[in-house]
Write a structure and sequence with these properties.
With 493 residues, the protein is mainly alpha-helical. The protein contains 16 helices and 7 strands. Helix 7 runs antiparallel to helix 16.
Length: 493
Amino acid sequence: MAARNILAGGISSFFILLYMVVVLNVGYVYIDQFARQEVIMAFIVAMALPVLAMIPSRRLGKAQFYLELVVLLYTYEMAMLAIQKPVLLFIALVPFIINLLLFQSRFLTTGRQKYKAVTFVALLVFMYFVSSVIKVEIPGVRGYEFAIALYDDNISPQGIQFIMTGAITLFTKLFVIDLSVGDFLLFITISAILTENYSMIFTYLKSRNKGMVNTTLSGAVTALSCQCESLAAAFPTVIVLLLSVIIVPLMVETVGSIILTSFLLSRLYLRGRGWGFVHRVEEWSRGNGFLKVMILPYLVVPLFETFGIFLGFLNIFMFFAGINFLMFFTGISIPVVIKRVVGFRGFSSRLPLIGLTALSAFLMYVWFLPSLTLVAYTSPAYFAVMNLSTVASGFLSGVAYASTRSHENRRLLLEFITMMESMFAIIVFYISVVGRYTIWPEFGLLQATEFAIAMFGVTLPFMWMSTHMTLSDYAVDDTPTKVRSGRNDAVKA
């Protein structure tokens, strides 16, 4: 069986080599002379993948699953590029059919593996389109059927993005694809890890769906947790083509958070163990130190806003919007502090919580509608109304958080609030950078982009941590817990 698989991988590599020879020598494809080296390197990588995917190895079993999927997509793309050239199409279809049959017999044996295959392909295709690495062309606009050139020959002379270094651009009458080793490895890595995380989250929460939670709550946790992972992966996808040094730390932050999620799921949560750090944070939040931190915004935010306005920072969108979000968190802290000091009766029903959260979101984000932003920017009175509105928005979210009697509901609410901020940053970024649309003309496109990048970088750790506070809770029983010194597993107090 192993020998047969390796032989099949060798045959696939041979036909990919044959495809390369035809492309480079027969003249079916116009290749810019400066791009020949990059094209040859791309084919060499393509020839190595089928063999690597077929070598029998238990350690590489999971990686080979995704390698084989990549080979399938690669050979399928070769066939699509040669759709109008029968000889090239036949050469590309041979390795595609071989790998398709082998993949079906080796990996598609369970429903879970089929789900993972579909998820991985969907994520990878989505990332390529969202990042604008693949651009659909209007049929018949270009005069050639298939051409390849260096990527930097087709953009402005400002330079190229580090991740697109050594990239090539494939032109056809149907679409244009920018390919580089950087985006190839980044998108495959993110898609594979995300697929594994989704699978583990569904498996984990399904196995932990016992007396402490009901099916509806488990579904909500699953949706929010998967959404957190999606948001973490979305940002490096849309900033691939951004000319900025800030994309390096952002990619490290986002990809690192996804990898750490995978580690925690496989090493702790799926084994019924909570994350010790999360439980120590929870114990700290019950002490006086947390109370002092929650009081701090009352003192700091008004002073920060006053000095900022005095120094003329109001025409800077990062300050303008930042004040809005700081006022929101100031509003949240008010009912939380009152609850800790005085105490008040909470809600047992979820309906008031949903209503308060929806109204809070409306009061917060309504001021980012361009017309209302302009009014608040030009009128001191409306700017004050905006501040009061966002404080009220935070207050309502704080009431919802402090009033619920259910620990699980508080976790879901915290996760939703933090996720909402990160999602807003991604939406602003995508509209500004990918759509090239100026949402707030009074501030300009650059300021909106800078704000979105900064906001996502700041809010991602909070969104990620709130998600893991929820997931870690599911790993232990619904009882007060403490963490043994030097260990990650929680035990009953």
